[in-house]
């Protein structure tokens, strides 16, 4: 049984790394496309017709993936000052309410993101002629990742990955 959990953890870390890599790659590609667009417009007086649509698509995707990564690393709005004045039992309750709220938000994204993606599939983007649903397909994906992070956090497992990058904020 221990081997099963080890394998499951390895798979989850691999998938999580892939998700984060896709988010960073989308952001990098978006920056590269905008840079090329500016250079071609200023130097050659030419603009790729697809560049703005692809940039917007990558911005939407990297933004939504960033939401899931932010929940994973506890970068969401925290009210630590408020929580510290509460009695210990209420603080422990908040430690369960917050990940449960994250989970519910993930369910919201899965349900309504899927519905909206399906609804928008018939429409086409003007320059690339891709279905508009491509822009919104990230919503249910982000929802699934957010649900997973919420459940893991409810189980009391710390999902933050890059703890060495955290800065100390004086209180």
Report on the architecture of this protein.
With 171 residues, the protein is mainly alpha-helical. Helix content is 73%, strand content 0%. The chain is built from six helices and no strands. α2 (51-72) runs parallel beside α6 and α4 packs antiparallel against α6. The longest helix has 43 residues, at 2-44. The model has no long low-confidence stretch (mean pLDDT 85).
Notable characteristics:
elongated, mainly alpha, 171 residues
Task: Briefly characterize the structure.
By secondary structure, the protein is an all-alpha fold. The protein is built from 6 helices and no strands.
Could you give the topology of this structure?
Layout: H1 2-44, H2 51-72, H3 80-84, H4 88-120, H5 133-136, H6 138-154
Helix content: over 70%
Structural class: mainly alpha
Please tally the β strands and state the result: 0
| Uncertain regions spanning at least 5 consecutive residues | none
Mind describing the biggest β-sheet? none
Q: In percent, how much strand structure appears in the residues? A: under 5%
């Amino acid at each position: 049984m221990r081997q099963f959990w080890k394998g499951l953890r390895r798979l989850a870390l691999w998938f999580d790394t892939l998700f984060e890599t896709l988010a960073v790659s989308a952001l990098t590609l978006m920056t590269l496309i905008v840079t090329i667009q500016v250079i071609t417009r200023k130097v050659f007086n030419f603009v790729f017709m697809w560049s703005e649509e692809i940039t917007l698509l990558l911005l939407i995707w990297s933004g939504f993936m960033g939401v899931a990564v932010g929940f994973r690393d506890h970068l969401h709005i925290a009210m630590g000052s408020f929580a510290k004045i509460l009695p210990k039992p209420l603080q422990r309750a908040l430690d369960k309410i917050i990940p449960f709220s994250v989970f519910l938000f993930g369910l919201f994204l899965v349900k309504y993101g899927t519905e909206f993606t399906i609804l928008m599939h018939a429409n086409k983007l003007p320059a690339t002629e891709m279905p508009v649903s491509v822009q919104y397909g990230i919503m249910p994906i982000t929802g699934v990742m957010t649900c997973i992070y919420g459940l893991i956090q409810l189980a009391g497992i710390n999902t933050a990955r890059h703890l060495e990058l955290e800065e100390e904020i004086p209180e």
